[in-house]
Structures are given as structure tokens and as C-alpha cells.
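Researcher: Structure for this, please.
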Amino acid sequence: MREAVIVSTARTPIGKAYRGTLSDISGPHLAAHALTAALDRAGATGGEIDDVILGCAMQEGTTGYNVARQAALRAGLPATVPGMTVDRQCGSGLMAIAIAAKQIIADGMTVTVGGGVESISLVQNSHKNTYRAQDPWLVGHGRSIYISMLDTAENVAERYRISRDAQDAFALTSQQRTAAAQQSGLFADEIVPFTGTRPDEDGEPVPFTLELDEGNRPNTALEGLAGSNLFSATAPLPPSLRATPPSFPTAPPRPCSWKRAKPPAAGSPRWASTGESPSPGANPTRWASARSSPSRHCCAVTAWPSMTSTYGNSTRPSPPRRCTAATGSAWTRTRSTSTAAPSPSAIPTA
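Model: Predicted structure, C-alpha cell format:
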């Protein structure tokens, strides 16, 4: 069977929503920036590309009208290169990467691009199209398909008895690890610095260069977390379940993964081969628990033995340029050693 091999990735930095550095950058511009870098890193030309697939959960405004096709054209690819935009909500980018791999494995393509793009700043605002956005039958039959992320987080915390203290401790660890990773330059190889302009208070363009993800709060302390409250969109949360407000990004990471039908020649970048990529469903009131199905089923990425290294108590792929999104959909195994994935009995069921 044909094999799809990831040979290059790239992403923009993550910017804060609304007031962040990238808040005025269009969707096609963001995606084309990562796409161009992935092309350069792979040493490929536009004419080699068989398809460009991008995931996007909010396909309107600046990320509407098939943003994958727009990004391909803005990146300078020939008009003969097609584009397709995929919506699986929070899993859209990973789904796009899986589709790109399947096009090589099953459809006879040679080089495809998969990734994702999102702009909360320019889409989820007062101009968002909410006209007849909810189907009356689904609302009337209690399907909860339109439940907010805040409400489903409450349900998951209550179902699995995740206390406020546990959430605060996890949030603190996350902030600390992100700060340490940025200080040590762990993200430097995957991020492509973004240079552009954004309007100041008077509307005048101000030049900028963003090299790191925004939103990290390295001075976070448990005392500060304990004093913060986040209320539900529909009702106040119990004190034990109030979560710490997150820093919303204006655009999540946009890795663009190159995959070839045959392994690259000796000396070429060769990070990982793709395996199965199941897509689970879950009760909308607890959609955050849907990830348990693929983690039980199989792993999504198989790395080459020469590209593994140890992080803490687990072993994970460590390619020359780390691909965060391609390895983030399920438990990762390597050909020489495997990560310690939890047993099925230890994974909560929806």
C-alpha cells in the first residue's frame, strides 16, 4: 500500500484575539504565510502540488469563500492547483491533514498540503452572521448541538468530578511549561515569524514582527487563579467548577504538512508516516470527551526511529522541525519505542 510521509511543516505565531498583533490580518494572508514557508522548507515548487486542504471552523467573512483556494493563490501557487476547505469544528485542521494523507494513499496524488486557519478577531465579532443560525427542530428535540464551549466544559467537569483546585493547578502548570518552552526556544523551528502592519488607535498602520505566541502569562500564580471567576453563558457555575478565563487566540496554529507517495531521497526531511485517523462523535453536551475513541483505537502518527527523544516520562517524535498539529490527534508511537498511553479502562467514556 502507498505510504504518505510528512516532509515539512510551518505555522504562524498564535496571536491574541481582538487586541492582539495579528487581529487585523486576513485569513488568506495568515494561511498563505504558513503555506509559503512549508513549500520553501520542503524544497518544492507550486507546480508539484496536487491539492491544498485547510480546516476552518468559522467559514465566513475573511475565512469564507473556500479560504484554502484563496490561500493557495495568495501563496503564489498556479491557478491549476485546487483547494478545499473542511469544517469539523475544533478538529478541522487535523481532519485536513488526514485528508491530505488519504489523497496520497488512496487517490494517487503525489504531493498534497494539509493544515488549518482561523481568525476569531475578524469573524467572531459584531459582524458574525447569526441569521437563522439554529435549526428549530434540533433545538426543540433537545439535541444540544448549539451548546457553548463554556457549558460543555461545565458538564465535563461535573461528570468526571474535576474540581476547581485541580483546574487551577493544571492551568498553572500549563502557563509555566509554555513560558519555559518559549524561553528555551522549543517553538522556534516550527514558527515562521510574521511581519506586517496593524492600525494604531488613530487608524495609522504600525509595522510589527511577531516571533512568539501571544497569550502566555509567565507570572501566573495559584492565588491569582483562585480569585478569578468565569460564568456560564446561561447560568452561574458552582464555585468548585468555575474555570480560569483563557486567552483566546486570533488564529490557532496553522501547520501545513507535506506528504509524498514515496519516501524522500536520502538526506531529505522525513518526519513521519501517517496511519489511521478515526473521527469520533459524542453527546454535544460533553463533546470535549470525544477524543477517547481515537486514542483507544489507534495512533495517528508513526515516527522514524532516528527522530525520537525523551520529554519527561514519555517518548515522542522529535523531527528537525517539530510538527505539533500532526502529532496532536491521538497517542503517538515510534518504531523503536512507544509512549505510555492510558489503558481503555482509564479513559472516560462519553
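Researcher: Any notable elements?
Model: The chain has nine helices and twelve strands. Residues 239-246, 251-263, 292-350 have pLDDT under 50 and may be disordered.
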